[in-house]
């Protein structure tokens, strides 16, 4: 990382207050998002095994489709934060509106793909004949909510760039409650079955999008920013997001390869892998909250031309990432015997998962550095480097992981490869931040 003099205690405390003020609400909003799926799963699960299996397939497809476009939040956060730092709020909100218009267009395009191809997509998963009709029904209806989901991503990025992570938390909580109530009412009260669960989620997502749009439109009118779509601005948003799309696809490829390798090791191994992956994802939320704070804070400092403030904030956030990673790793080690029985009573799965969980625990400080520096470089608008770095990481990880079954390795080796992947990511990000090439000041990069 770029070397900077140790900041005075007063400066460190100021950075700490900023990080906590942004990261804590962001963490709450991140946790609320997977609760949507948990609520759907709990309600649909009582309809029958075939319905639950159909939900699992459709949800995997929807989650993948939406997560690919997470750059709508990341790129918008950085661009808006820069303009906030430069003191140009109208331009910041205008930039945010461009991101929202892009999200709308992408959402419509995804609907055009998902609705007619739903049966083929479900079949690609090897879904059983009994579960496939439910998966197709849920997928076709839920796909109608994708534009709202993508608008929520972009609008979340706008508010984060404006240094507001509380509003997304409130909207996420309200959305979760509405989703649970609508699902229960439509599935059982209206007797719509799995279709009711899908419609409940669609309605909740559009309600969340409307709430975000109300806040953004109110801000636009207050500062005199135009709400009309601007072709040049939308193209600029797409160009800024393209490298982050490459980064996200590369990361998804890593996770898919790891799961495919675990599946080849046996049923107990893939069962243990899924349990560990769910924990790994949960731990990632805590670290990602600091990264979100980093996107907003770094973008604001660079927009204001404060390079020293950006360096000091970067250093302090890395310290936070390491500290949180150590705490999370310690919790994983301490809770290993208690965690696994929550998911399965199979002793074979326990025996396979325990050493792999230790690998996950030891890697958490590394993950802390990775998430923070990833957020710092996103906040700096350094997307092209992040794309190249993640492609390199994928090129290192793939052959190592794919050799594991051939060499007789087990699930611990798979998570050893995951730790190697995070270590390579840490090195690529550390070298970039140390070089100082990410520090580009001004309202635009």
UniProtKB/TrEMBL annotation:
UniProt name for this protein: MATE family efflux transporter
Pfam families the record matches: MatE (PF01554)
Locations listed in the record: Cell membrane
Entry's transmembrane regions: 19-37, 57-80, 100-121, 141-162, 169-190, 196-217, 244-263, 275-299, 320-340, 352-373, 385-407, 413-431
Membrane topology: Multi-pass membrane protein
Entry-linked InterPro entries: DinF-like (IPR044644), MATE_fam (IPR002528), MdtK-like (IPR048279)
Keyword Mitochondrion: no
Family per record: Belongs to the multi antimicrobial extrusion (MATE) (TC 2.A.66.1) family.
Keywords: Cell membrane, Membrane, Transmembrane, Transmembrane helix, Transport
Organism: Streptomyces ortus
């Amino acid at each position: 990382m770029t070397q900077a003099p140790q900041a005075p205690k007063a400066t460190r405390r100021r950075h700490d207050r900023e990080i906590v003020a942004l990261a804590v609400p962001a963490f709450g909003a991140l946790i609320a998002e997977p609760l949507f799926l948990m609520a759907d799963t709990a309600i649909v699960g009582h309809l029958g095994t075939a319905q639950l299996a159909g939900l699992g397939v459709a949800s995997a497809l929807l989650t993948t489709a939406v997560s690919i476009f997470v750059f709508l939040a990341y790129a918008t956060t950085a661009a808006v934060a820069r303009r906030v730092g430069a003191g140009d709020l109208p331009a910041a909100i205008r930039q945010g509106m461009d991101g929202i218009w892009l999200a709308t267009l992408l959402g419509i395009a995804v609907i055009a793909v998902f609705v007619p191809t739903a049966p083929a997509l479900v079949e690609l998963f090897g879904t059983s004949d009994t579960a496939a009709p439910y998966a197709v029904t849920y997928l076709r209806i839920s796909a109608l909510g994708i534009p709202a989901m993508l608008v929520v991503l972009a609008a979340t990025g706008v508010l984060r760039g404006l240094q507001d992570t509380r509003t997304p938390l409130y909207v996420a909580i309200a959305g979760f409650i509405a989703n649970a109530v609508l699902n229960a009412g439509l599935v059982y009260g209206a007797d719509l079955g799995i279709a009711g669960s899908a419609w409940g989620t669609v309605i909740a997502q559009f309600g969340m999008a409307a709430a975000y749009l109300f806040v953004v439109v109110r801000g636009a009118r207050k500062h005199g920013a135009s709400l009309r779509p601007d072709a040049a601005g939308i193209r600029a948003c797409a160009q800024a997001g393209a490298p982050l799309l490459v980064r996200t696809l590369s990361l998804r490829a890593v996770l898919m390869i790891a799961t495919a390798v675990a599946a080849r090791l046996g049923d107990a191994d893939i069962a243990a892998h899924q349990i560990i992956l769910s924990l790994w994802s949960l731990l990632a939320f805590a670290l990602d909250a600091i990264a979100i704070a980093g996107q907003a804070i770094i973008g604001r400092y660079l927009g204001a031309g404060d390079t020293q403030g950006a360096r000091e904030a970067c250093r302090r956030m890395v310290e936070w990432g390491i500290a949180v990673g150590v705490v999370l790793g310690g919790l994983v080690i301490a809770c290993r015997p208690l965690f696994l029985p929550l998911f399965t009573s199979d002793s074979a799965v326990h025996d396979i998962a325990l050493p792999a969980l230790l690998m996950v625990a030891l890697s958490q400080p590394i993950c802390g550095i990775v998430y923070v520096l990833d957020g710092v470089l996103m906040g700096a608008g350094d997307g092209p480097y992040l794309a190249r770095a993640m492609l390199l990481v994928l090129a290192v990880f793939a052959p190592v992981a794919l050799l594991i079954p051939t060499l007789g390795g087990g699930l611990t080796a798979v998570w050893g490869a995951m730790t190697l992947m995070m270590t390579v990511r840490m090195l690529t990000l550390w070298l970039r931040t140390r070089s100082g090439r990410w520090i580009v000041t001004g309202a635009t990069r």
